[in-house]
Structures are given as structure tokens and as C-alpha cells.
Design a protein that fits this description.
FAD/NAD(P)-binding domain; eight-stranded mixed beta sheet; binds P-hydroxybenzoic acid; alpha+beta; binds arabino-flavin-adenine dinucleotide; D-Amino Acid Oxidase, Chain A, domain 2
Amino acid sequence: MRTQVGIVGAGPAGLLLSHLLARQGIESVVLEARSREYVQQRVRAGVLEHPTVELLREVGLGARMDAEGLPHAGVSLRFEDADHRIDFAALTGRGIVVYGQQEVVKDLIAARLADGGDLRFEVSDLALDGVTDDPVISYTRNGQREELHCDVIAGCDGFHGVSRGAFSGETFDRKYPFAWLGILAEAAPIQDELVYANHANGFALYSMRSPEVTRLYLQVPPDTDAGTWSDARIWDELRLRLGTEINEGSLIEKSVTGMRSNVREPMRHGKLFLAGDAAHIVPPTGAKGMNLAIADVRILADALESYLRKGDETGIDGYSDTCLRRVWRAEHFSWWMTSMLHNFPDEDAFQRRIQLSQLRYTVSSTAAATSLAENYVGLPHGAI
Ligand code: FAS
Ligand code: PHB
């Protein structure tokens, strides 16, 4: 079998790349280890930054997002027992949309299948060969070993995929001494915007998915077993850290997510191009993970179109450096938000006072609040 672009991974990066390439008349095949049902129900990101919202609308993927997504014009930071709103609309003229990653994935899969896209789920033992000259992806599907010959390969298989290890490069890594315990509850949100809380007991985040579903997170030690937190203990700790009443409800999901910053450089090796979590991960405090994946594939789709249609290699030669400028901006912002809002087990009194000073300055200075706001709503694609 042969295709122009072999895409490994059917997360937001792989699926959107396939969609963008199809719009440009470029053929692709998406190979995914998990089932369609699994990738469609996997609970992850919740916030679409402004450039992501605009891109999805531009490429015909905005209908359900506009009907069911929740437009937000700000967030609040809570510390020293008070909430402080950061007004995105007033400071930047832009906002965000709260719309679960799994909804974006469902929309992408539906669009690709309606368009005759070739999505192959539940493949196993996938291997990449010839990535510098004659790329081939081999894998097992329905018990049969198959080979897909490609003009190029896009490694969109996330942080635990095979693509990131397919070539040597430089890795930059920071692990954080805490994790997030996340819950999804069938309970009407009582806050109408996100609240990020810095409390003596630790960080908490109030988010939501719909008028009926609340999404909440608590900072916990890095090796926490979600099973050791009873529902009652979770609700009590959330009320304490967020300083607000919270509607309780049955838990749809309860899981612990590790916090880590990691970048692989370069993002290209020969005819293999990494995009999304396969190339970089961020702590979710800045709500950048999925948005960064989308920004990567927008650049990659244009670069591959020029290369495969016109033989112009400018885009693919500049791909890694172009993406990494935005990647490092998101890495810094996510590190900064994480450092400002979490309790560090080994922090001393000096660090605690520095952290509080940063929070007070961020909510009282227009310049500082604008800096947070413009990074959170998302710098325009290509702006950095
Ligand atoms: P993904 O990881 O989404 O997709 C990669 C795909 O490749 C997966 O479907 C996987 O099954 C597949 N794959 C892997 N190896 C393969 C192989 N060998 N063969 C074939 N397929 C293979 N970001 C936020 O902004 N906010 C959040 O709250 C948030 N929470 C998160 C919670 C968790 C548990 C995780 C892991 C991430 C979270 N993220 C969050 C980040 C997340 O949203 C990512 O940034 C986003 O999924 C990146 O999309 P992709 O790059 O497409 O990678
Ligand atoms: C979410 O709603 O899942 C969410 C929102 C903001 C974040 C992280 C996660 O920073």
C-alpha cells in the first residue's frame, strides 16, 4: 500500500493534520493503536484558545463547537481568600471556548469519515523504517502484518508513541513535584468561568464541560493513587481550596495526571515530522497542550502541501524552527502559571513570598494582567 502522508496517531494532531491535508488535495492514512470508541471518550483538555477556535471554524469544524461550546471572556485567580478576575475581553479583545478535547476528536473523526478519510484503528506493533529516504510504516491490523509506503510520515502519536524515539535529538525535561487529581462530575457548575486557586493546602482548578458537567482538579503528590481519595474527601478539599460552594454529583471520571515539561529538538528527521505531544508536553496549568498540537499541524499541513505539490522544500526545512518558537513560548507560559499557582513541597518562606508577590502584581497591574491574558487566549498563529 502507498500514500502521500502516513500519520501515526488519531489524537487532535493526527486527525486535524489529515483533515487539513485533505482540504489541500493531499492523501493520507491515519494509523491509531486504540479503538475509535476509546479515543472518542478519552477525557483530556478542555480549553480552546482563540487561534484554535478560529482555525476550526475556518476549516469547517466549528458548527458543534459554536452550538455546544462555552465562550468565556476571562478567568479568575484565587489567593489570600479572594478571587481576582483577569478580563480577557477588556485586555485583549479576545476570549476562549470551553469545549472538551473529546468533542474536538469526535468532530474530526466524523468529518474525516464523511470525507472518505482512511482512518485505521486498533493497529499494533507499529514500526517506522526508511525515515530519511523511503519511509515505510509496518503494523499489524486484524491479525495481518501490513506495510504502508509513504512520501513522508507525521509522528502524531503523543508522548508515549514510537515516533519521538525514532531518531536521536536533544531532549529538555522538567518534572514537577506534584500531580493533578482530576474529576468529571454530573453536577451543574456554579461558577460561570474558570477559577485557578493557590491555597495553603495546594492548587485547585474549577472548570466545566457543559451546563450539566463540572471539571475540577486538585494538586496532589506525584505518586497519588486516585483510589485513595474518596468522593467526600475530594468535594471537601475542593470547597476549601476554591472557597466556594460546589454542586456535588456522580463522578464520571477520576484520574491522576503527572505534571511535566518536555521538548524534543529537532521536530523533523529526514521525512519524519513530529507534531503535538510526540514533540512536546506542558503542564496543563496554561491549557496549552492540545492548542499547541493544533498550531504544529497547521504549519505542517502548509509545509507538506508546498513540498508534495510543488517540490518546494522551504516549509519543511523551516518546520522545526518555526514550530519551536511557539512551543517554547507555551512551555514558558505553562511553567510560569504552574510555578505561580502550586505549592512546592520544598519551598521556603522566601519562595512563598515571591509567589504571592507575583500573584498580587499579576492581578493589580494592567501590564502584567495583559501578559497573562494574551498568552492564555493564545498569541495569533505565526505571531512569534
Ligand atoms: P495524543 O496523545 O492526544 O494522541 C496521540 C495518539 O497516538 C493517541 O490516540 C494514541 O493512542 C496514539 N498512539 C500512541 N502510540 C501509538 C502507536 N505506537 N501506534 C499508533 N497509535 C499510537 N492538555 C490541556 O490543555 N488540558 C488538560 O487538562 C489536559 N489533560 C491531559 C490529561 C492527560 C491524561 C494527558 C495524557 C494529556 C492531557 N493534556 C491536557 C494534554 C493533551 O490534551 C495533549 O496536549 C493532546 O492530547 C495532544 O494531542 P496529540 O499530540 O494528538 O497527542
Ligand atoms: C479543563 O477544563 O480540563 C482545563 C482547563 C484549564 C486548564 C487545564 C484543564 O488549565
